């Protein structure tokens, strides 16, 4: 073993003890520890305990873990933030801070059912840990308004990160009317409408989401070109009259059979020459990565739908051909997202 190699037992411990790391991170964030220490650097244990309304011993435990895992730095008796925790001290509706409440309340307990979900081939995590009767996460969110808000705050922050790059890189010069399936609260639509001033966009999503999207569209002054409509993507045909269809972070939630069905609906809604754009997390064609593809695949299977995963670009291209689209390219976004584009023959 060289000096830089990590012993196998240490590497394994990092995996099977990872839950402790997250709970120190989450508790520090939820209690406002990082924001407090950023605002008042150098506070000692008793001062932190008083400001967080905690007893001294629980405060010591929290500070010990946050220091061990690099979230805080201790100088003498005082505590300070580190580059790792500084992004968690403000802008709580933006990534990375917006991810922590969703991971804690939406994912953490449910992912304990991962093995059982694999064996049963369904999303047992959702069924055991998130109240409601709907078979998918998205239906249950409508039954849990507080959790739904947490989810959409997280997703909006993710969409803003990807959306800014999508706005600059995706060429929609030949598109006059874009249908945005599962377009959420208009993050992508607002970006694209701003970039392409002659573009009309119709967002199609669940009723509660469409209502929120139209409210936002009105506030942005885009109601003359952008609107949201209620649509059940699996039971309703897609509206016609568009010449482009966008699926952004939507198809990977579902099984390959459902994806082919959705792509076929898009093909039926488009005229010859119409364009399709699939924004999705990337899985390498050889099935070896990246890391985010593995994590999201486990999440889709255990919680979100019980049937989806992050698919390879080659799979999408095969599905395109099966429903009458010609594959026209792959556009990378960031480290692990891709836009797969096609044209109706």
Automatic annotation (TrEMBL):
Residues 137-326 form the O-methyltransferase C-terminal domain. Signal peptide: none annotated. GO terms for biological process: methylation. This is Methyltransferase. GO terms for molecular function: O-methyltransferase activity; protein dimerization activity. The keyword Methyltransferase applies. Residues 18-89 form the O-methyltransferase dimerisation domain. Keywords: Methyltransferase, S-adenosyl-L-methionine, Transferase. The keyword Transferase applies.
């Amino acid at each position: 073993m060289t000096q830089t190699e990590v012993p196998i037992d240490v590497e394994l411990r990092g995996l099977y003890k990872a839950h402790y790391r997250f709970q120190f991170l989450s508790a520090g964030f939820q209690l406002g520890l990082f924001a407090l220490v950023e605002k008042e650097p150098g506070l000692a244990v008793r001062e932190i305990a008083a400001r967080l309304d905690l007893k001294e011993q629980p405060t010591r435990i929290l500070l010990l873990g946050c220091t061990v895992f690099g979230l805080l730095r201790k100088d003498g008796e005082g505590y300070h933030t580190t580059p790792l925790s500084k992004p968690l001290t403000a802008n709580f509706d933006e990534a990375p801070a917006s991810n922590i409440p969703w991971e804690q309340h939406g994912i953490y307990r449910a992912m304990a059912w991962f093995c059982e979900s694999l064996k049963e081939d369904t999303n047992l995590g959702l069924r055991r840990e998130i109240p409601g009767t709907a078979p998918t996460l998205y239906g249950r969110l409508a039954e849990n308004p507080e959790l739904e808000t947490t989810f959409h705050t997280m997703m909006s922050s993710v969409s803003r990160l990807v959306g800014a790059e999508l706005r600059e890189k995706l060429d929609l010069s030949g598109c006059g009317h874009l249908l945005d399936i599962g377009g959420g609260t208009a993050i992508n639509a607002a970006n694209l409408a701003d970039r392409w001033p002659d573009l009309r966009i119709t967002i199609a999503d669940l009723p509660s989401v469409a209502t929120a999207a139209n409210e936002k569209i009105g506030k942005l002054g885009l109601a003359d070109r952008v609107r949201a409509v209620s649509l059940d993507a699996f039971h309703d045909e897609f509206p016609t009259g568009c010449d482009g269809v966008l699926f952004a972070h939507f198809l990977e939630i579902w099984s390959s059979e459902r994806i082919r069905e959705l792509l076929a609906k898009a093909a039926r809604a488009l005229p010859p020459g119409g364009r399709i754009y699939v924004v999705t997390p990337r899985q390498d064609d050889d099935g070896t990565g990246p890391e985010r593809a593995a994590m999201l695949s486990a999440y889709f299977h255990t919680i979100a739908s019980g049937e989806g995963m992050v698919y390879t670009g080659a799979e999408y291209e095969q599905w395109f051909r099966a429903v009458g689209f010609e594959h026209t390219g792959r556009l990378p976004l960031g480290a692990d997202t891709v836009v797969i584009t096609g044209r109706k023959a």
